[in-house]
Amino acid sequence: MEEEIVIDPCNGGASVPIGCLVDKISTMVPPKAIFRGIIHPSIGCIFGPSKSFKTTFTESLLLSMSAGLTTFLGEPLYAPSKRVLIVSMEEFYRNRTERNKKQIMHLTEKHQLDPSWSENVYVVDETFPRYLFSDNDWAKLEAEIVRVKPSVVMLDSLTRMTVDPIEDSTVASKVMRKLRELAFKYGITMIIIHHSQKIENKALTIASLAGSRVIGQELDFMIGINRTSNNVRYLKDVAYRYAPDDSEHVMIFNSNESQIVEKISLGEEAAIIAGSTTPAPTFNKDELVLDFILEHTNQDAAVIFESSLLVQNLVDTRKMVKPTLYAALKRLLESKIIEKIGKGQFKLVGPSSI
Questions:
Q1: Which candidate, 314, 260, 316, places its Cα nearest to that of 290?
Q2: What is the per-residue pLDDT across 313-338, written as a single tens digit (0 to 9) for each?
Q3: Is 108 helix (H, G, I), strand (E, B) or coil?
C-alpha cells in the first residue's frame, strides 16, 4: 500500500491558514510604541509648515531616547536601544551641531546624567551627501545604518531624497519603497521630516501632506506640527496604522532657550487656529456616551438603541468625532456595560453593571 503523504498546511506556499500566523505571532514579543502611535519598527513622518519646529521636535525626541528618559512631553517614552542616527541634509553641519550641543547640555544638566550618554547619538558630517539622488547616495545611507546599528533614524527631509517631483506618484512610490525596505531589513524605526501644503491657519489632515497621496498610503504614522499666524505651535496625531488616532485634543508646545521642546497644555485645534490657546476641557467621552444611552433607554436593559442615533446626536452636533464615539462604545462593551445584539444595535447589560 502506498504511504499517504501528509501535507503541513503551514508550510509549502506563500499563503497559509490564518491559524498558522496566529500561532506564529503568539510566540513573538509584541511591538512597543516609542512615543504616542510610533510603533517600533515602522516608518512615518513628522510634517508641517516651515519653521514649525519639526526638526527641533524630532531631535528632542531622539535625544531624550538616547538619554534614557522614560517620558517625553509628559507622555511615556520607550527606547528600543539608546543608539540613534540623525541624518540632516537640509542644514549646514556647523549650525546644526551648535543646536545639538545646547540640547545635550540641557538634558545632561536637567536630569543629572553622565555626559557619556551622548556617545549614542550619531549625526552625519559634511562628507555625507546633501541629497539622495543616486543609488550610490542610498548605498551610503545604508552603510551608515549597518555601521552605527541605530534603533531609530531621523531623515531630514523627504524632498532631499529625489531629484524628480515628489508629487509624481511613480517617484513617491520609488522613494517610499526604498525607505520601507531599509526599515524592514534592519528592524528600525524611520522618522522622516516632511513639509505640508500651504495651509494658512487650517487644520492639519492627511491632505495637508505635500506630494503624492502615495506617501500617506505608505506611512505607518503621520504626526503633524503646525504653527499658527499668532505663533502658537501644536502637535497633532494625524494618522496611525497601528494605534488609535481619534484624539480631539492637540498638544501646544514650544522650544526653550536650549532648543528642547516643552509641553505647554492641551487644546482644541479649531480654537487654537482661531486665536485661543485655552486648554481643552477634559470631560470623559465615555461618560458622555453613557449618559445619552441612559437617557434614551430610561435605564431599561430591554430597550434597544442604535449607533446611528448616537452619531446623529453626538457626532453631527460636533460633541465628538466619529472615531471617538466608536472607541467609547468599544470600551463600554469591554466593560460589559452594554452588549451588542445586532449590526449597529446595542442594549444595556443591566442596571447592576452601571
A1: 314
A2: 887 766 777 777 888 888 888 878 88
A3: helix
Give the cell for residue 170.
511613480
29, 147, 189, 17: CA torsion to nearest 10: -50
Confirm if 35 and 49 have CB atoms less than 8 A apart: no
Of 157, 160, 93, which Cα lies nearest the Cα of 126?
93
Give pLDDT tens digits for 57-113: 999 999 999 999 999 999 999 999 999 999 999 888 888 999 999 999 999 999 999
Is 253 buried (19+), middle (13-18) or exposed (0-12) by CB count in 10 A?
buried
pTM score: 0.75
Task: Go through the domains of the chain in sequence order and give each one's CATH number.
Answer: 32-274 (3.40.50.300), 285-353 (1.10.10.10)
Cα separation of 217 and 203, whole Å? 20
pLDDT tens digits, one per residue of 249-305: 899 999 999 999 999 999 989 888 888 554 444 446 777 788 888 888 877 778 898
CA distance 237 to 318: 19
Q: Are 62 and 243 in contact (CB under 8 A)?
A: no
CA distance 13 to 29: 25
